[in-house]
Request: fold
Amino acid sequence: MAAAQGWPFLVARGRQSGYAVRLAPGFLIQTQEYGVLEDGTGAQIVAGGRTLAVVRAEHTVTGADVGLTEAPRDEHSRPLHLLYGFVCPDATSVEPSDMDISRALQAALGTYRRFLADESGFTLAASNPFPLDSAVAPLTRPPAERKPVVPYALAGLVAVAAVVIIAVTSLGGEDPPPPPLHPQTTTSVPRPVVTSVVQTTATLDPGRPGGRNR
Reply:
């Protein structure tokens, strides 16, 4: 079996720009579903018909992160924070290793340095996957639901009962109602079950409402 892969992502703001996705897996960019990564609550997500386990963490940007002597701040003198991590497709849970968290952070910081150098000209970047060292629980598909089989004897009784009902209705002097011109059909579409499986590896800043400044 091939090793599970992690796709780094980054949600961040700059000195003037607000929070937005700056780095995302290529398959989410192709389907225009990368916006789901902006949700910092840490729930398993379903995108493009795939179940994704997401590991999230926060990091306060230091001067060393971006090649400065002092930590950068926004136009209101607030510190800058990163929401980063990695996405693991077709998984139900991930126990993140320190190595994988470090890999995701390095990918996020590389993208953030380019973004901070040219906020107005920066465009969304696509991440490259890396083999995970973390323990991953793969997604298992539930068995297809089997339709109940009606015994022949029971089916015969049902048919007899239907004939009796039709006969009684005819004796009552009333014609059976005509069939509808446009019979309604009901299509059952299973709703995806979303389970909270995301591990947050760093606590949110208590000084920022909701863990985020916009």
User: Anything to note?
Assistant: The helical segments are 26-30, 98-117, 152-171. The first helix runs from residue 26 to 30. The mean pLDDT is 74.
